[in-house]
Amino acid sequence: MAATTRVTDLSSTTRDGVGTSPRRPDGTLKVTGEFAYSSDMWMEDMLWGASLRSPHPHARILGIDITEALKVAGVQAVLTHEDVPGEKRYGLEYQDQPVLAFDKVRYKGEPVAVVAADHPETARRAMERIRVDYEVLEPVSDSRQAAMDPDCPLVHEPHELPHHPEYNPRGNRLRYQPIRTGEFSGTAGSAERENGVLERLRAEAAAVVTTEYEVGMQDQAFLGPESGLAVPAEDGGVDLYVATQWLHVDQRQIAPALGLDQEQVRLTLAGVGGAFGAREDLSMQIHACMLALHTGKPVKFVYNREESFYGHVHRHPAKMRYEHGATADGRLLYAAGEVIVDGGAYASATPAVVGVASSLGLGPYEIPNALMDAYGVYTTNPPCGAMRGFGAVQACFAYESQMDKLAAELGLHPVEIRVRNAMSQGSKVITGQEIDMPLPMAEMLERCRDLPMPPERAQLSDPSDQRTLPGGVAGTTRGEGVVRGVGYGVGLKNLCFSEGFDDYSTARVRMEVVGGEPVVLVHTAAAEVGQGLVTVKGQIARTELGVEKVVIAPSDTQVGSAGSSSASRQSYMTGGAVKVACASVRDEVFSLARSKGLVPDGIEDTDLSLSGGKVVSATAGALVALPDLLGEAAEGGAVVEHTREFHHRPTEMLDPELGQGDSHTQFGMCVHRAVVDVDVDLGLVKVVALDAVQDVGKVMHPQQLAGQIQGGSTQGLGLALMEEVQVEASEIRNPSFTDYLIPTILDTPPMRIDVLERPDPHAPYGLRGAGEPPTLSSTPAIVAAVRDATGRPLTHAPVRPEDIVGIEV
Amino acid sequence: MEFLSPSTVEEALEAKHAHPDGVPIMGGTDVMVELNFDKRRPPALIDLSRVAELSEWGPDDGRIRLGAGVSYTRIVEGLGAGAPALAKAARTVASPQIRNRGTVGGNLGGASPAGDTHPALLATDAVVELASVRGRRKVPAREFYLSLRETACRSDELITAVLLPEPTGPQQFAKIGTRNAMVIAVTSFSLALDRERRAVGTGLGAAAPTPVRAETAEEFLAEEFDWEGGSSPSEAVVRRFGDLVASAARPIDDQRGSAAYRKHALSVMARRALSWSVTEYRKGAA
């Protein structure tokens, strides 16, 4: 290794700190294909795990016979629910999901048995020999029926489930959350009086729009399928290397199922190939650990793509009914929304998704009278849970479609109606929570409207270039039937966990001198899932400690929880934890300098900083270089280490009747403008431009921020135009990337991104989580643009070619 | 599973003769997916990628003889003028990586009704060359597809080449997908006008259990078209042609699209392909 000596100007700040775009430490490896993902792990003597899954969405298990499977040469273990050493159910919030099915299977693809063998093919062959005797039951497929019909068959027997009275559960309802404000707040509980109020408001309104909407089931479509390696340990415990989003919540669920203490289940984050919410729930974790403990050998699982479609939760499909009434000048008088999200067979994150879909169900608008009902239900459909946008995506499609419809009704520009009803700092969302941070919504809408438009088709150098046309090189048009449309969308997203959840994060930061150079080690359990936290942690340490060389330790459970890599929260929470841990390290360094008489009298700590590897006084200049202050660690020099937790401000549950409460930590917003070319005869769409304005409070890493906004926008584009896990009679029709389509680069338009930095006074650096908001607004913006081009109502996302050409699906 | 790697056609035919259940594999873009997903476990794989003859193409008695193992990429690069419809179809196959591996022989062997090259082979009246230890025979594409994924290729035969007639008029290919690249056809359509024989050829993909022609539409247009002057057919003729193409389809509702949409899209593509062809015909473009 070539050594470089750099003479640092005492006045300089440390490079690659907050606000710059240093390279990701894992970037080159990922681009060159050398990065080790969880599916690449390998150990001498390891066994391969495989899962036998239910072929039926709903069936009683009458018997399981593993005799023939055990006879297959090379098979080391075949385990069923009878072999689960501890708790037989687990779950994120509700402990309702069997480790391995017993009594009943509740979705197609539910794991029933697991096999470990010396070769994956052997494991699969053995699996085919397991005989499961099923009594097939009618599936419970219709989420509206599950929510509303008291005679609907139950997916779970009532006595089987843990009781959560705060969620109003009943029948197949997992959670029901009503919200009532204004004139509706006095009528709660009486449908008759509510209708009375509604009728009065309707009469008062100059325009009323009522529509039913649907959002299909979206897959997170991460590229690295579920995988991990469990290694039995000498203490009777297990070491699990796994791609996940939250090591400690995995540990919390795995240990009881294995009948082990938490400390006996040690997790290390393996290379994660994308997450988007799909790794919040367990997949192969307990299975691999059970087989490893049973066989005494390391056991590896890797799902293939089809199994992955059954192996993780998806975005909840939603059925929605909305009614909006406005005055003649376009001011909202009232809004009423009903959202039913289909949780599938097990709860996963459904209660929390309902909390978001209700509280943010009417969007970022001033609404004097609001009536909102959100339901999360059990069905025998594939389980649904967390996905980027988390309940806010579905509602946003509906309320934004409503705003467009209202604008059309009143003859207003879509931006104008939004501006007239826009929330701002000091506004209250329908839960009564005040937005106590900047929310420059009207300005963002106007900025988005005023962004330069892409060139008209006729202005292109070759207007018939197929790559610019709907259908692309498949050659379906040379311009025939192509109509341009423009649409807008805006969404409000809660950032960090909500409703009383203390999703704190922990960071350990150590400073020492190695080889004459100050080095900082940052250790957290936070999952790097591709979002770039690993870069941001280093930037924060450099900025706070003025040291260039920062080492990021692998994420594991040897340090306290970092919470989940979801809810756009890691820069805020783990970034916040790194920041406060750095502050503790810095304070100790200052007092060390003081104790050595290196700080002149009269200079307060507030006058001191760490910069360029030195303790620097704003008034007295450089005081001491860190190597001189601390001394070489290997020769007994000082090692300064602090572990700190970071908590955001407390939040509260919504009350179960009026849905009031300060449930959210922070709010984020993105505004989109979509320009599309639609082949109105064939129903094919080419998105020409997808431009965004987002307020992120503080830009931590400009390049990664752009990546998040582009990625979120593209995921929203997928939901607008192609991404749907098609479920018919509780069975997935398209469990493959052949038939579950996600946007390619040829579907992804250029994106202008206009970033605002209006700091949130409550957040570290004033930052705002940035990953989710673009996923909300891009979908309704694109669908609105397609409506603009076609005049079709388009109430289903994704829009299908049939919807555009007017063929019933 | 046995893995055979013949290096000449003769060896390959011997291998197929000895292993009639053996599955030929070339680019592997279809076969490997089936193996990886455990859809089938043939007793033998016959790897044809080392058989040089299969990867060659060139003129052959007024036609182009295209080895069954020529990649789509090479077809796109080399056959734009010699076999325009096929080249256009090849351009719509999947991604650059798949086009580097996939072949017409594989498309014919799999015989998926959604296979991208079938409509072009049908429309242009291409001929499939089949070989076995018993000898070689030629089967018109129009007689090749028998029923769902069943073809005229016998269990001891290999697909060695397709023979592509020299174009004597405009050829089109268009394919519907719900994204702008890398998509399996929801439905597809190919049209060829044969100036010399005054004949019309069509091919429909993902429209029936096998790739099919719209013969009534072909006859109708051959009758109505102004072969002499290439004047634009009337709106009524164009519309009738589209309707006849759609009515030749026997599509299903599936995860990629509804039967009604497929018929609708076929009629639109047929009308557009006709109008493009007429313009090109007048220009004298082949």
From TrEMBL, chain A:
SUPFAM superfamilies found in the cross-reference section: CO dehydrogenase molybdoprotein N-domain-like (SSF54665), Molybdenum cofactor-binding domain (SSF56003)
Domain Aldehyde oxidase/xanthine dehydrogenase a/b hammerhead, chain residue ranges per copy: 32-138
InterPro entries per UniProt: Ald_Oxase/Xan_DH_a/b, Ald_Oxase/Xan_DH_a/b_sf, Ald_Oxase/xanthine_DH-like, AldOxase/xan_DH_MoCoBD1, AldOxase/xan_DH_MoCoBD2, AldOxase/xan_DH_Mopterin-bd_sf
Pfam families: Ald_Xan_dh_C (PF01315), MoCoBD_1 (PF02738), MoCoBD_2 (PF20256)
UniProt superkingdom: Bacteria
UniProt feature, compositional bias: Polar residues: 1-15
Region Disordered, annotated ranges: 1-27, 454-476
Protein name: Molybdopterin-dependent oxidoreductase
Organism: Nocardiopsis coralli
UniProtKB/TrEMBL annotation, chain B:
Keywords (A to Z) from UniProt: FAD, Flavoprotein, Oxidoreductase
Matches recorded under SUPFAM superfamilies: CO dehydrogenase flavoprotein C-terminal domain-like (SSF55447), FAD-binding/transporter-associated domain-like (SSF56176)
Lyase among keywords: no
Domain FAD-binding PCMH-type positions: 1-169
One Pfam family matching this protein: FAD_binding_5
Cited InterPro entries: CO_DH_flav_C, CO_DH_flav_C_dom_sf, Diverse_Substr_Oxidored, FAD-bd_PCMH, FAD-bd_PCMH-like_sf, FAD-bd_PCMH_sub1, FAD-bd_PCMH_sub2, Mopterin_DH_FAD-bd
Protein name: FAD binding domain-containing protein
Organism: Nocardiopsis coralli
